[in-house]
Amino acid sequence: MNLKNLTPIREGSPSCKFCAGVGFLLEENVKNSSSGVLLLCSCVGESCPCGGKAPYMVYDESQNRMLPCVCHNARMELGKVEYLVKKAGIPARYKYRTLDRMDTTELSFLAAHDWANDIVIQWKERERIQQGLYLWGGTGSGKTLLACAILNELILRYGLECKYAKINRDFLSTIRDSYQKESELHGMEQTIKKQFADVEVLVLDDFGANKESDWANSQLYDLIDTRYEEEKVTILTSNIPPTDWKDKAEGRIFSRLMEMAKQIHLDCPDYRLSHSAFGTH
Ligand SMILES: [Zn+2]
Ligand SMILES: [Zn+2]
């Protein structure tokens, strides 16, 4: 698939019929990969004298020095996208999934999809978008897919640093580990919190999936409050309606959510089951 409409990168041949000038492609039918891989396009890689060996430089006899290979810029840009997607921790099945290839026949999904599109398209005019999104619905309603698609698009379009995290596994549990003397995370509480606070766009998946303790709720509040104060965008997915937060953490989480997040209820039947084959080819 060519990525022309999803990225401003133009390191390929402008007339190339495969990449439309981007320099690399998303190859979707790849064994052992549910969401495809990025491949250098033949318009830059085919006759390339460096043979794809980093740092993609070749010796130029007439100038008696090393010069960037024809493939250099395309490979660097491809590598940067791969790096950002990997660093973001997007689950394998949602890597490189984008908003343009989703079934939006369900009305509630369409509304959420529209809003996701707005964040992505209007990113540069930040005052026009809300600081958060609270996507809630049952298992398989497509909320994680949508949240990850927003991250993929922000990486492809703007090269942003993003992070995907499951609230228990990646946030609360790692903080708990940092209290354990034998853990390699011992003493790292502030570092972990800073990573979550600083990243430009954060997806918190399964927000409030478990009955949390007062300690956990106060951690959650601190996190979304810090991000709110620092004007960072936070996307939350949850099984529970926002009103369920009213009696937790003295209502502080609820009032923050009301202020910062657009709330969207996905009430489609199991999106994952009914669309399991969609978007994989
Ligand atoms: Zn090409
Ligand atoms: Zn080369």
Automatic annotation (TrEMBL):
Single GO BP term: cell division
Keywords associated with the record: Cell cycle, Cell division
InterPro entries listed in its UniProt record: AAA+_ATPase (IPR003593), IstB_ATP-bd (IPR002611), P-loop_NTPase (IPR027417)
Gene Ontology MF terms: ATP binding
Keyword Iron on entry: no
Gene3D superfamilies cross-referenced by the UniProt entry: P-loop containing nucleotide triphosphate hydrolases
Start and end residues of each AAA+ ATPase domain: 129-265
Highest taxon of the lineage: Bacteria
Cell cycle as UniProt keyword: yes
Protein name in the entry: Cell division protein ZapE
